[in-house]
């Protein structure tokens, strides 16, 4: 056997080793895998790209805001699309905001902060004084708690906070794109957005799963009501059903047009694909580009890994007279059938394994 | 279309659906002294008595379409009643009860979402308590994080809002009196209001950016009191943040304060609980000490911490990992860990009586009451040498078992039901019965609990004595005993809960367990041998001691993905019969449920845990021969009789390409007047089984996709086999046969025509002029396309012993059309009236795009072959309601000739009447086909979030348009709802 063969065998073994376990997400989620292979920090990049395919979002855009940007795949898309390869990329301005820290990106100004907080909003606004933005995008989502009403509410608040910032920084005629949960009160958000934009569409990129209630509102042609003065200290509150939740028509039962975005030939995010996509190309595991910088659970995970999480102490062994009244002798009772039923198998396991058990306890 | 038809459509469109029953997760809990427990389940407030075994006394729907997140007792009610009484400042403990004559009452503020409501609980001398709304639902502009009753002559409430503001509310009328926002405009996940008066109250806010902020909304001003009394709304005032507590690295989900010690506790997304020494808050003390120290950081949860409560010396926390931890304040260590339902997590937690009792409520309505459980271990020395065996004697429970022997462990005979259980060190419990020729037949093999590799015994506990009259009797309970690493575990397979866990050192030892007895299920003890000594762990017999009471059965913790109805058992009377449903969930389990819509009773009859991934689709076969001799089970649903048993074949499909089939025998015990269920495993199938069998599979990367089965439909329900259509995530539609005789699934056919995830499948059957049955299959994928397949010859097909067991009939669809922009979530197909040469099919579909579409398909039968086929299938007409729902349309059912019902996560269930669904009143001609159109009936709100599936009784398929039996729709998602459309 040649040495080359041995080396190549070793290499194959190693790559198999590396692929084990980690490939399962690649199998379940084609866009997750593609994102890694194409160098995006998150699969969400495809959502923005597919929205752009339909709406031409970046046409003529020089200044953009990316709200809730971490880990930064939308900023990557903006950076690539706006700056391109042109020389005059100096007048391109991209401001990215998130609660989480984010690895730097060329031409992207970062702000770490809560977009629902006035101070953060003011900081963003400062960047666009005199020179309004052409595009505001927001992919904000709460960490889903599983309580749907809470998650939907927080999501709606992120959208409204983004809208509030938008009213300060967006130029008339500009575009606002935001993630939205199509849940119980989505019509109220539509009616709120309709106040500020002449075109509101609910769009679902093909890279967003069919099974998820997530979609994106693409709001075109910013045209605030006449005389509207943006006000930071009074947050935009949700609209409410002024009559009845059950009502079918009226200003609060606005349902905006729906549009599925992205080429039909694109990958289907709900479909499970084999790892070997292309028969001529061997599957290789690609590590993630940019894992979250400091997730909230970091410390907890560290403790858990090192078995440092607090655990229940084993019950204390105390002696009390309470049991002395009980008959614990096996011999006494062994004449009854019932007792035999309980006793026989115990004997069995005892005899075989008393030593083993002792060993176990030592460990 | 004729005029009369239009009128008919109109009349029907006025039909109203009414909600019959709702099972929702528990999201709020509060003790009313030691007498009652108040729980919020969806919009419903329920009262449980703590004295009488936690029976549900009364319930009231209080918050319309909002979910209850908190309940607060009014402590100042008495004081308010006594008009002139001067407030006693120092008095700390006040009873919330107000006595007037023989009537006692309390006032509650119930809040959730953007609503607050005041509710009264009244107790008259006789009978139980009653609930009554004392005012309208007060709808606010903003989300409510907390409320607090104020000590004032008028019923005033301070309301903490999610935008870091506090509202002063006149609770009776719902008037807003004052609003104060914090200058730190931000979003709060949680808030806590403290203090007795508006002027000096303090709010602690848990922000999104990991900080706690403390500030005072009602600064002390001379005009303070006048303003409140004068009932003038004041807005626009702002206040400064006075204190900030930083340290958490995630959002804050819950806050608690212990005035006696001046401790504040916070629970966070970062999985920790922190304790802060804030000192006195509220009143003259203001915002507490200048620089509050963080006294403790408690890490112990495996996931987010949702709730925290304080008692003197103890901290209780509960979280997403389903655990409730009791921490010692001094040690900073976990003293006790109560493991609730694993899936779903614990949302609400309440303490009563100074922390002696802990109430744990689960997301899923599973709820336990644990009083500081101090398991006692007693040390006995029996002699010098080795102790080989110990056992309990004189226990009543033991009588029920009969040893039948076996190599895998023990076999016990449970005389009552005639079923045998065996268990062994493979971690499985086998259910057997004596079949024909006195042979043992295995009915079901079930894994006990995860990690429980060594099952030692199965115990059948006697039904609770006297429990039945009080409505909690659950019949017999089975528990599994075994070892899980170093613990001895008592496992409840229905509730999926560890009842007891003792660190005895692991298997291979001699032990004996005495089950708890009596109405409280109190007591119970384990004796075991460890290092030559006999140790006993006893759970105190005293009901005041260690008790865990199940208040409510838990349902699938992480949401139900599918539900289907099997039938009913019990007396025929509307109110008394038990509807039998099967449901599957993301927690990978399947459950068989019995519910009585009118009484609201719900029982979990059986939980099946064979799936290794989430259960996504269910189907039922009603025919088919039973293999088992000697017993005749049948579905005799004749009115006026008692149906004592029901037998059907349940097929489930889910992730990892897994199919399971069970024979369910649901009986009705007239003595106990409750249903019970026996589950027999019939067949099981996994696509990747071939791969699983490879010995070196851990060394190679699995190249196959991990296909999920998305939907399931019965194509043919024959006496010997059932044909199933399965929509698969790998882009295939597959047809399987399942036979009870062979006990296996067979893959007969597959097509990758769609090349996209197939979301829905549905069958339709027509008769051709020669009265041959023509079987069509419909499949819909994520690209909005529907394919129609001619499957007619598959029912007659038999595998020849030599050839491969596959059917190669159709290889391409006979018709395809696009109805939606994105996924076709749900399909409903039915036959229209044809005449001789022509058949009609109507396809209704619900899409991810929120659209409802109705398509008419014409099938022209030819005398001879035309273009290689004896029939021509073509699309005749299509009509759509573009924005039927504001969110994806997730479920659609055909209720009758011209009635459709649809459901969506926008939380509306809509009824649609078709003005002319099938053109049967017209002579078929291309120009006369009136397009089927849908008009909308008043939609009905469902209060439970995401609706994913809906099942309807079979009766609705067969009913005519004039004599409508009551229609019921079962919705599921997070919770289960039953809607009825009265005839
Ligand atoms: C789905 S991720 C965004 C992914 C991003 N668009 C990309 O392509 O990489 C949602 C982000 O919203 C952020 N977020 C949530 N709440 C926020 C808030 N109140 N202020 C700022 N960011 C927030 C989270 O930190 C998270 O990084």
Automatic annotation (TrEMBL), chain A:
Residues the entry annotates as binding S-adenosyl-L-methionine: 72, 74, 98, 114, 139
Location of the region described as Disordered in the Swiss-Prot/TrEMBL record: 334-363
Gene Ontology process terms (BP): cytoplasmic translation; tRNA nucleoside ribose methylation
E.C. numbers: 2.1.1.205
Annotated Pfam families: FtsJ
Catalytic residues (UniProt): 179 (proton acceptor)
GO cellular component: cytoplasm; nucleus
Compositional bias of kind Acidic residues: 351-363
Gene3D superfamilies named among the record's database cross-references: Vaccinia Virus protein VP39
Domain of life: Eukaryota
One MF annotation (Gene Ontology) recorded for this entry: tRNA (guanosine(34)-2'-O)-methyltransferase activity
Keywords: Cytoplasm, Methyltransferase, S-adenosyl-L-methionine, Transferase, tRNA processing
Residues annotated as domain Ribosomal RNA methyltransferase FtsJ: 40-222
Catalytic activity: cytidine(32)/guanosine(34) in tRNA + 2 S-adenosyl-L-methionine = 2'-O-methylcytidine(32)/2'-O-methylguanosine(34) in tRNA + 2 S-adenosyl-L-homocysteine + 2 H(+)
Cell compartments where the protein resides: Cytoplasm; Nucleus
Keyword tRNA processing found: yes
Predominant cellular place of this UniProt entry's protein: cytoplasm
SUPFAM superfamilies documented for this protein: S-adenosyl-L-methionine-dependent methyltransferases
Record's function text: Methylates the 2'-O-ribose of nucleotides at positions 32 and 34 of the tRNA anticodon loop of substrate tRNAs.
Oligomer and partners: Interacts with WDR6; the interaction is direct, and required for 2'-O-methylation of position 34 in substrate tRNAs.
Family listed: Belongs to the class I-like SAM-binding methyltransferase superfamily. RNA methyltransferase RlmE family. TRM7 subfamily.
Protein's recorded name: Putative tRNA (cytidine(32)/guanosine(34)-2'-O)-methyltransferase
Natural source organism: Aldrovandia affinis
Lineage of producing organism: Eukaryota, Metazoa, Chordata, Craniata, Vertebrata
TrEMBL record, chain B:
Subcellular location: Cytoplasm
InterPro entries attached to this UniProt entry: tRNA_Anticodon_Mtase-Reg (IPR051973), WD40/YVTN_repeat-like_dom_sf (IPR015943), WD40_repeat_dom_sf (IPR036322), WD40_rpt (IPR001680)
Disordered as annotated region, ranges: 921-945
The keyword Cytoplasm is annotated on this UniProt entry: yes
Domain of life from the UniProt record: Eukaryota
Primary location group: cytoplasm
Keywords from the named record: Cytoplasm, Repeat, tRNA processing, WD repeat
Gene Ontology CC, one term: cytoplasm
WD repeats by residue range: 245-276
One of the protein's GO biological processes: tRNA methylation
Alphabetized Gene3D superfamilies for the sequence: YVTN repeat-like/Quinoprotein amine dehydrogenase
Its job: Together with methyltransferase FTSJ1, methylates the 2'-O-ribose of nucleotides at position 34 of the tRNA anticodon loop of substrate tRNAs. Required for the correct positioning of the substrate tRNA for methylation. Required to suppress amino acid starvation-induced autophagy. Enhances the STK11/LKB1-induced cell growth suppression activity.
Family, as annotated: Belongs to the WD repeat WDR6 family.
Protein name, entry field: tRNA (34-2'-O)-methyltransferase regulator WDR6
Organism name: Aldrovandia affinis
